[in-house]
Amino acid sequence: MGVLSEFESKQLLARHGVAVSRDKLAHSADEAVAAAVEIGGPVAVKLCGSSLAHKSERGLVRLGLDNSAAVRTAADELLAAAVEDDGEVALLVSEMVAGYREFIAGVVHTEQFGPALMLGLGGVLAEAVGEAVFRLLPVSEADCKDMIEDLDIPALMAPLRGEPAVDQGALVDSLLGLAHAGGGEGVEAIDVNPLVIQDGLPVAVDALVVTTGS
Amino acid sequence: MSRPPLDILFNPHGIVVAGASTHPGKFGFVALHNVLAGGFDGPVFATNPDQPSILGVEALESVADIPEGAADLVFVCTPPHTCSEILRSAASRGVGAVFIASGGFREAGSEGARAERELVQLARSLGMVVAGPNGQGLISNPAKLAAQIVAPIPPPGPIAVASQSGNLVSAFMNYAAQSGVGISRAVSAGNAAMLGVVDYLGWFASDPHTKAMAAYVEGVEDGPAFAAAIKRVAAAKPVVLVKGGTTPRGAQAAASHTGALATDDRIFDGMVRQSGAVRAQTIEEAYDAVAAFATQPLPAGPRTLVLSSAGGWGVIAADALSKSKLELIPLPADLKEAIDGLVPPRWSRSNPIDLAGGESRDTIPEVIDLVADHPEVDAVIYLGMGIQANTASHLRSGPYFEAAELARICEYHERQDSRFAQAAADASARTGKPILAATELGITQPDNAGPATLAAQGSYCFPSADRAVRALHHMWWYARWRKRLLG
């Protein structure tokens, strides 16, 4: 088993129709600044590599950087924080995605029933909260709608604190895309956490694809 | 062309109890006793080399002695090492199906597991089917067949049961005996060497005597095949599943959050929902649901109305509804107006409809008809049935029954509750809508005129308002799944 970097993971998901954040890969502080300018607005800068999971726990994520100096400082610090075990690393410059609601979604190969798609309440507390529902692959559009309903959080789907209601069609599309990606050759598991609801639309802000190859 | 093996198992022409015993404490005695007590109307044979006859049945030396073609099912109570010989003899006499009740196979260790595998191979080579081993038996009421080493023999009815645990087959049958909503077929899969729970469900799906089925499963060997089989069965008839032995363990301990969240329980739950079965958490809940499916029409929608002459039960029903996917609809204005014309103004004037004791002789049947006929109502929960007959029962056994000449009022009360139950059953039949009547009196006082009238119709009296709501919730979920499936 191997893992794809966050950048590669999101590219793969995007090809299958999952909405992902606008990202640029940079290999130096200069490139990171240029990427931030191109993306526009405040950005996040993260250390990115195929051996890096759980970036937040290690402080390898800097959020809301709204000027070139801040981007440069973050980029320098993150590159300096990389250790040998991290292997080849780069900087991922991403648009800031803002929304109160965070979901987790993914695909996992289960021992008994084979590959399954998941949707749950996401963010750093995802596992502790443990609100998640599954469907076996392949899934239909109706299955994805059922998943949203089964999650049984109508208040989180409705307009919330000035944010519009969750566009359930778009969420279903992302789930279908995820299932499609997860059912593909060479994919063992997928984690999208968080899947942030911004202006009612789901955006994959972080993702990890585990591959069957090495 | 030979018959499908499960046809033979559930509708045999003749049966042999291999290893019948004269000792009433032995399975071999109880099995023969049950076959005879059940009234099986084909030939019954018994084998026991040491006895001339048992329970009036001539005991044969061995299965090889049964007349050619006289029996097609053998029920085996003898130890594992005797089974292969029984299978060979049975095959030579034209037997197509064998139920092995005996233990000592896979559940007993690696040697038993090997014996079990060899037995399966032998059965295949002989063109026979083996149920069990290590199963408590089967019930097939349409064939008056009770081939099992335990009790009870449940009343005939529309529910089929398949279970990986024999005791839970008995549990479903005990509920059936108590409630009167009976059993078509029931089988304990035992070690399921050749036939698993889904094989039985698959046969029940096309069994004309079965309207709904319940199953208990622990392990699932081939998950995707299990899911596909359940989906095929659920497309035909409602299936209520109880899963035992779920563990909190995730599917993967790896870096993936999704893997950590993928507990057996969540995966099974998703599989069940996708496959159109409904999942109950307890046997009690499963029996409520399967009895509802077997006796009530499916709701066309979630819009539910509660009719109560029993105060707090109405509130409990409303609470349960608010936690379900059913809708406790606002009381339609025209219904409000119509009921205003029937009872004094102190009634609730909302859903739940609580008549607050303002009803007169014909009010309940009239209101049942009004709500059942209303186009905005998909389902009705009816509470409070049996209260009058309970009072009658109390008066009858009290000190003043004779002196105060209470017979007439008692008869009136009882007649009324009987009418109410009948009105609920009739309105459901007329409108094609589910009307679930619930009262604890169905259990605490089963001869109460309300529950007894329901039982006489083959209807199920739900033991409480919340249990009725839960069953209706399952019905609505299944109805919705079917709608989507059939488009």
3D structure, described in words:
The complex is a heterodimer of chains A (214) and B (487). With 214 residues, chain A is of the alpha+beta class. Chain A has helices spanning 6-15, 29-39, 68-81, 126-129, 141-151, 154-157, 168-182; strands spanning 2-3, 23-26, 43-48, 61-65, 90-95, 102-110, 114-121, 132-136, 187-198, 201-204, 207-211. In chain A, strands 1, 6, 7, 8, 9, 10 and 11 form a seven-stranded antiparallel beta sheet that branches. In chain A, a hairpin with a 3-residue loop joins strand 6 (102-110) and strand 7. In chain A, helix 2 crosses helix 3 (68-81) and helix 5 (141-151) crosses helix 7. Chain B has 487 residues and is an alpha/beta fold. Chain B is 43% helix and 16% strand. Chain B has 18 helices and 19 strands. In chain B, the strands form three sheets. Chain B has a seven-stranded mixed beta sheet, sandwiched between helices. Chain B starts with a helix and ends with a helix. The interface between A and B is medium-sized, with 38 and 26 residues.
Helix content of chain B: 40-55%
Overall SS class of chain A: alpha+beta
Q: What is the number of strand segments of chain A?
A: 11
The counted number of beta strands of chain B is 19
What is the structural class of chain B?
A: alpha/beta
Number of domains of chain B: 3
Oligomer: heterodimer
User: Globular, elongated, flat, extended or rod-shaped: what is the shape of chain B?
Assistant: globular
| CATH C-level class of the largest domain in chain B | Alpha Beta
Q: State mean pLDDT of chain A (0 to 100 scale).
A: 93
The CATH architecture of the largest domain in chain A would be 2-Layer Sandwich
CATH architecture assignment of the largest domain in chain B: 3-Layer(aba) Sandwich
The name of the CATH superfamily of the largest domain in chain A reads ATP-grasp fold, B domain
Q: Report the CATH superfamily of the largest domain in chain B.
A: Succinyl-CoA synthetase domains
Number of helical regions of chain A: 7
Low-confidence stretches of chain B: none
- Describe the largest sheet of chain B: 7 strands, mixed
